Amino acid sequence: MAPVSPAASAPASPRLQAPSRGRGPAGHRPAGVARLEVDRAFPRSPRGVLKIARTLVALAALICFVASGAHEAYTALAGMETVITVLFLLLYLLRLDARMRCVFWPLADIFNSVVAALFLLIVALFAIIIKTNKGTLAGGVLGLILLVLCLVDMVLLCKKISLDKARGRSAPAK
Fold this sequence. Notes:
Layout: H1 6-9, H2 46-68, H3 72-93, H4 96-99, H5 105-130, H6 134-166
């Protein structure tokens, strides 16, 4: 048997213990740990309802285009619109727009709505005019509905920006 040294049987040094990952003794989070807040009011707001509607209509158009075997451009546009709208929905729902101040998110959302509306106008009209089958026609009609939702979203965002500026939330003038 090997002799046991007194240091081996002693409790470990406090410096060698792993840091605690849980809450501290007072129930507070350790410094540097970020917590995501969910904005529970956003899904019930007009902008939240509109974002959810845009997501669902884009997803329905994507399903129609995929199921009908439509041209890849139709499917790609509907897929991109679904993904981008879900990302903006998560951005506002998790209040990441308040944390990431490097971009003015309502303006980026307006730009997204304008570009999406232009592409949707072209693709939806082609899908309706060509109407290779009923799935493509249904996807084109949903694309036009999505176009209207994009335009309404753009108007609501423009109103939000102008109201925020009127309330004094813009950069101070010199």
